[in-house]
Amino acid sequence: MSGGTADHFYREAQRLGYVARSAFKLVQIQKQYQLIKPGSSVLDLGCAPGAWLQVACQSLGPMKNGGVVVGIDLKKVKVPSTHCDSRVSTISADVMNLPKDEVLNLSPQKKGFSVLLSDMCPLVSGITTRDAALSMELGMRALDLALGRSKLPYYSLEDDQLEKQSGKENDDDVGVLKTGGHLIVKLLESEDTKELSKICKPLFRKSSWLRPKATRSNSREIYLICQDLH
Ligand SMILES: C[S@@+](CC[C@H](N)C(=O)[O-])C[C@H]1O[C@@H](n2cnc3c(N)ncnc32)[C@H](O)[C@@H]1O
């Protein structure tokens, strides 16, 4: 633990074999929403050091149920030996620059994922507005990957038409989240965070905000939880 006394969640993580206390954020999300089910295909963006990989794999249940968990992070991540099995794999890449078709290729039969988790966070500078803006960029990228660019407001339809006229396929139109899939995105709260839920609300059956109990009291993090992509 970096500085301070070991808190409840840190001690519990040590006791239960989780590589980080952040595990309990996904444990709480799972308890409340049951988004990851036996057989789910899970994409975990910003997966280092691997606590969410552990909880996601546990949530898949026994090996015979199948399912996969794919983690991506800037850092190289060794799949934790506790709570993870051969259904978990990781790659090291910058999600901001990773082409969507490469992400799709990581999914079972290249057909997409049923759950997309983004716990990505920028290196926090302490300048609230700057950190929130960087977090928003990561959040928008998670949305772009999940849903496809045409669903995002900054995407110009004119560009799309031009590409169609030129006969060029636009891979960015399609997201990697399957119909009926779920999306969880971490953000550092600011005025702009509401924008993200405005985009998601009509696209999913339900969307809500959660600040998990394991979030540190001095953190501005908040999770957007979107259920059942139309
Ligand atoms: C809070 S940590 C994730 C913790 C993780 N969910 C766990 O429980 O072990 C945030 C991670 O986001 C990653 N990250 C930030 N920007 C990224 C990017 N552009 N591409 C991939 N990973 C990124 C960081 O390297 C960091 O490891």
Would you summarize the structure shown here?
With 230 residues, the protein is of the alpha/beta class. It is built from seven helices and seven strands.
Average pLDDT number: 91
Radius of gyration: 17 Å
Q: Termini, distance in Å?
A: 41 Å
Task: Give the spatial strand order of the biggest sheet.
Answer: 3-2-1-4-5-7-6
Helix content: 25-40%
- By CATH reckoning, the class would read Alpha Beta
**N to C succession of SSEs:** HHEHEEHEHHEHEE
How many independent structural domains? 1
Per DSSP, the total helix count is: 7
Query: What do we call the CATH homologous superfamily?
Result: Vaccinia Virus protein VP39
Counting helices, strands and paired strands, the structural category is alpha/beta
Hetero compounds: S-adenosylmethionine
**Proportion of residues in extended strands:** 15-25%
Tell me how many strands there are: 7
What's the architecture, going by CATH?
Answer: 3-Layer(aba) Sandwich
Major sheet details = 7 strands, mixed
Shape: globular
What can you tell me about this protein's structure?
With 230 residues, the chain is of the alpha/beta class. The chain is built from 7 helices and 7 strands. It has helices spanning 8-16, 23-33, 51-60, 100-105, 128-147, 157-165, 193-200; strands at 41-45, 68-73, 88-92, 113-118, 177-188, 204-210, 221-229. A 7-stranded mixed β-sheet has the order 3-2-1-4-5-7-6, with helices on both faces. α2 runs parallel beside α3. Residues 161-169 have low confidence and may be disordered. It binds S-adenosylmethionine (SAM). S-adenosylmethionine is lined by residues 20, 22, 46-52, 72-75, 94-96, 119-121, 138.
